[in-house]
Design a protein that fits this description.
Aminopeptidase, 2 helices, 25% helix, N-acetyltransferase, Acyl_CoA_acyltransferase
């Protein structure tokens, strides 16, 4: 399965990563809240049934992590999916996840 196309939309205090796959109905998304310039909260991840098992959630989490790392930010993983993902990769995410 090819990687999803991920886009990011930004508002003053909120952010949203969206993932789509060519030829697959639906959109997966991960919402964030900006706590400060240095901290972002992962609020929630939604993956429609049409995308289950395709890696959309992991791709969204990876993009959030990459963007936060590039911006020198910390992520507070309130979202259960992002928290579980970060827990599985705890060693390599110590610089970006705020537990």
């Amino acid at each position: 399965m090819p990687d999803p196309m991920i886009t990011y939309s930004d508002a003053d205090t909120k952010g949203r990563y969206s993932a789509t796959f060519h030829g697959v109905d639906g959109e997966a998304y991960l919402t964030t809240s900006k706590l400060s310039a240095a901290t972002v909260i992962a609020d929630g991840t939604v993956v429609p049934d049409s995308m289950r098992g395709m890696g959309a959630g992991a791709a969204l989490a990876k993009r959030l992590i990459a963007d936060a790392r590039a911006a020198g930010q910390k992520i507070v993983p309130l979202c259960p999916f992002v928290r579980a993902y970060a827990g599985k990769h705890r060693e390599e995410l110590t610089d970006v996840i705020q537990w």
